[in-house]
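ARCHIVE CARD
CATEGORY: sequence design from structure
SOURCE FIELD: tokenized fold
FIELD CONTENT:
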């Protein structure tokens, strides 16, 4: 015989178990995930000197349940990733940059690769691809200035237009010379998209020839066409330039909705980056109360990106001593926050954006051990 209340106890327990059955996250194949990450930020947008994409790949098949985000992959961060059972580490900075001649236990970067493979953890790095995209690191950094509009300092170009060649050559010729010219042109290397079509020039039936070619081939084509003065004077040469991508590129030039004092900008940036201290070099003829209307910024190391830009302030992680002196001499105040402090805060925003992009298929966590190596003592 059941004790009074036993049936009443079973029902709530059953209900608790039912409520506890949360839908399990779906696993993603590593290659499917990498493809999705490449869609989020095309690697073609990265700088040519960079080392981006999948850097360490466990033997396939490899499925990912937990994606681990960090700004820098140190040994301490790697240990955290192992403890949290990460399947793929997304490290903003590429931990493998210069070529490794061997993978041993001797250096810390080699040990990262060893640890990753031992625990079947992939490593992916987007770096400057995330700098360029409209929803990337530099866009996040602009939020520290307050309400503003921004444009890239160095816009990115469409990676696949035009597909071939740096120049297009167009000329018209009569039927008598057409075959001879075409046969000689076809002997020139690095020529593509050679087409012909009928054209009427000054009442005469002729043939218009168009071709794409490299800078090197262009010299040979011009030399060939210049042998016939009539042909040469009917030649047009176009420089093929890739179209700019809107809101995409390195650095940002920001125009504030309302001018604010330099001291106010400093406090906004400290609040956004959650920093108690930053470094400031006040521009010549400026004070902490001088108004700021235009700000040029670049996450990380901004010397090369910011150089020569007209603005009231430069905001970046680090700059060379002499570049700071140049900026100050030109009346531009410089705000330095240390390299990775201008990047790391983006990871929390990235976690949420990637969760949506990946349709919440996997767990995404941000490292708690990742930090800038420089501290104020």
């Amino acid at each position: 015989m059941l004790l009074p209340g036993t049936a009443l106890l079973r029902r709530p327990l059953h209900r608790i178990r039912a409520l506890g059955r949360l839908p399990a996250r779906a696993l993603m194949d590593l290659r499917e995930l990498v493809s999705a990450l490449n869609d989020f930020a095309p690697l073609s947008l990265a700088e040519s000197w960079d080392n981006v994409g999948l850097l360490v790949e466990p033997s396939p098949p490899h499925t990912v349940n937990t994606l681990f985000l960090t700004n820098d992959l140190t040994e301490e961060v790697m240990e955290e990733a192992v403890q949290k059972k990460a399947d793929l580490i997304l490290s903003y900075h590429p931990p493998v940059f210069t070529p490794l001649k061997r993978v041993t236990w001797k250096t810390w970067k080699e040990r990262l690769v060893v640890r990753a493979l031992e625990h079947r953890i992939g490593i992916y790095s987007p770096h400057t691809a995330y700098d360029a995209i409209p929803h990337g690191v530099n866009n996040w950094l602009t939020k520290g200035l307050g309400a503003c509009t921004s444009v890239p300092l160095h816009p990115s170009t469409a990676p696949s237009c035009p597909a071939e060649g740096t120049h297009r050559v167009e000329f018209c010729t009569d039927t008598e010379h057409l075959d001879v010219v075409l046969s000689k042109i076809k002997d020139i290397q690095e020529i593509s998209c050679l087409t012909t079509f009928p054209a009427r020039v000054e009442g005469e039936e002729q043939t218009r020839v168009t071709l794409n070619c490299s800078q090197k081939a262009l010299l040979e084509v011009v030399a060939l066409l210049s042998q016939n003065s009539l042909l040469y004077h009917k030649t047009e040469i176009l420089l093929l330039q890739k179209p700019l991508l809107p809101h995409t590129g390195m650095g940002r030039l920001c125009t504030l909705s309302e001018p604010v004092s330099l001291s106010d900008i400093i406090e906004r940036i400290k609040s956004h980056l959650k920093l108690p201290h930053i470094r400031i070099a006040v521009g010549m003829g400026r004070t902490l109360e001088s108004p700021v209307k235009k700000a040029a910024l670049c996450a990380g190391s901004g010397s090369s990106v910011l150089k020569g830009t007209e603005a009231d302030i430069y905001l970046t992680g680090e700059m060379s001593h002499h570049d700071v002196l140049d900026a100050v001499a030109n009346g531009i105040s410089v705000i330095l926050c240390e390299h990775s402090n201008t990047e790391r805060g983006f990871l929390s925003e990235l976690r949420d954006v990637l969760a949506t992009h990946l349709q919440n298929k996997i767990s995404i966590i941000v490292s708690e051990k990742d930090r800038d190596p420089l501290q104020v003592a």
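CARD ANNOTATION: Residues 1-23 have pLDDT under 50 and may be disordered. The chain is about 30% helix and 30% strand.
SHELF: design records, drawer C
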